[in-house]
Design a protein that fits this description.
- By secondary structure, the protein is an alpha/beta fold.
- The chain has 2 domains: 217 residues, P-loop containing nucleotide triphosphate hydrolases (Rossmann fold, 3-Layer(aba) Sandwich); 65 residues, Alpha-Beta Plaits (2-Layer Sandwich).
- Helix content is 34%, strand content 26%.
- It has 11 helices and 14 strands.
- The strands form 3 sheets. Strands 6-7-8-3-9-10 form a 6-stranded mixed beta sheet, with helices on both faces. Strands 2-1-4-5 form a 4-stranded antiparallel beta sheet, covered by helices on one side.
- Strand 1 and strand 2 form a beta hairpin.
- Helix 4 packs across helix 5.
- The longest helix has 18 residues.
- The two termini are 26 Å apart.
- The chain binds adenosine-5'-triphosphate (ATP).
- Keywords: ATP-binding, Nucleotide-binding, Transport.
- It holds the Pfam family ABC_tran.
- One of its GO terms (molecular function) is ATP binding.
- This is ABC transporter ATP-binding protein.
């Protein structure tokens, strides 16, 4: 293993409720300075995973290691290193933000009242420090929740759906805050989300959870820098076009979408060649373009591949680039 000790490591972690597995054989690592997003639909197992890491749910299988030490070997001091917004109690509406945080500071036993102003500043709520929390918008409460999780300067921050219920401006603020905590303070951030577009902008790595399984792990940098590009080709006879491309250009990696649109994952740098072959053989091309695979495509492909019952119209799986 290279680099600093991971903040969190999960090895073969599983959770069964009765006869159903909510999380199955999950292996993943979160490093300091990294934002890792668990992405999945409702019920995919995200919250269950976060709860197990926090010791709020017992796991059925596997091992969880925080900062190089197994969860079982840690005493209460692990909570000094971990901050979370999972299952945290609400705030007292009749108290101000500052009073609420003071209350939490006492519970945490942090003897530094100046932390309150620091964390309020960090989440952009300094101006609202002395307002009662019942007057706060949902976005302000969300940020106050993150402020509370940061009071004791944790090294690992665990956020369950941190942008839930926020408006676009609030989402951007929370996103920038998360990036800053990871980049400047080298905090490890593990968050859950069901919104692709958001995760794409905040995470360094994304783990796609589907029915309790980690079906794919993507490093955002790679996806952004190299991205999987492919040709989109529309003809009236997709099947004939595919045969032709196989014969003439040896194309093996392609997908025929249900509407007949063709995706070709080869010859991406020579679209003219592909178009010429089709046209020369009497197959007019109605549309041709080069596209980059978005995380959404990736997500759909990953979950479809994990789901044998689904039919995405794939003729031949494009395979890894
Ligand atoms: P959501 O975004 O809806 O919270 P999630 O990805 O966080 O979704 P989990 O809450 O982890 O999903 O739930 C995963 C599965 O485990 C679901 O099928 C859920 O019904 C089940 N589950 C979660 N908690 C319990 C419990 N206490 N008892 C029984 N089943 C549970």
């Amino acid at each position: 293993m290279d680099g600093p000790t991971p903040a969190a490591e999960l090895r073969g972690v599983g959770k069964r409720y009765g006869r159903r597995w909510a999380v199955r054989d999950l292996t993943m690592t979160v490093h300091p300075g990294e934002v890792y997003a668990l992405l999945g639909r409702n019920g995919a197992g995200k919250t269950t995973t976060l709860r197990m890491i926090l010791g709020l749910a017992r796991r059925t299988t596997g091992e969880i290691v925080l900062f190089g030490r197994r969860l079982e070997q840690w005493g209460a001091e692990v909570y000094r290193r971990v901050g979370a917004t999972v299952e945290t109690p609400g705030f007292y509406g009749n108290l101000t933000a500052r009073e609420n945080l003071l209350h939490n500071l006492l519970i945490l036993g942090v003897p530094e009242p100046q932390r309150i102003d620091q964390v309020l500043e960090l989440v952009g709520l300094r101006h609202a420090a002395d307002r009662r929390v019942r007057e706060f918008s949902l976005g302000m409460r969300q940020r106050l929740g993150i402020a509370r999780a940061l009071l004791h300067e944790p090294r690992l921050l665990i956020l369950d759906e941190p942008t839930n219920g926020l408006d676009p401006a609030g989402i951007r603020e929370v996103r920038e805050l998360i990036r800053e905590l990871a980049a400047e303070r080298k905090m490890a951030v593990l968050l859950s989300s069901h919104i692709l577009a958001e995760v794409e902008q905040v995470a360094d790595r994304v783990g796609i959870l589907h029915e309790g399984r980690l079906v794919e792990e993507v490093r955002m940098g790679e996806l952004r820098d190299r991205g999987r590009t492919y040709l989109v080709i529309e003809t009236r006879e997709p099947e004939a076009a595919v045969r032709l491309l196989e014969e003439r250009l040896g194309v093996r990696r392609y997908t025929v979408l249900p509407g007949g649109t063709l995706r070709v994952y080869e010859h991406v740098d020579r679209p003219d060649q592909v178009v010429r072959v089709l046209v020369e053989h009497g197959l007019p091309v109605l549309h041709a373009s080069v596209q980059r695979e978005s995380l959404e495509d990736h997500f759909l492909r990953a979950t479809a591949a994990a789901d044998p019952a689904s039919d995405t119209g794939t003729n031949r799986p494009p395979g890894a680039a």
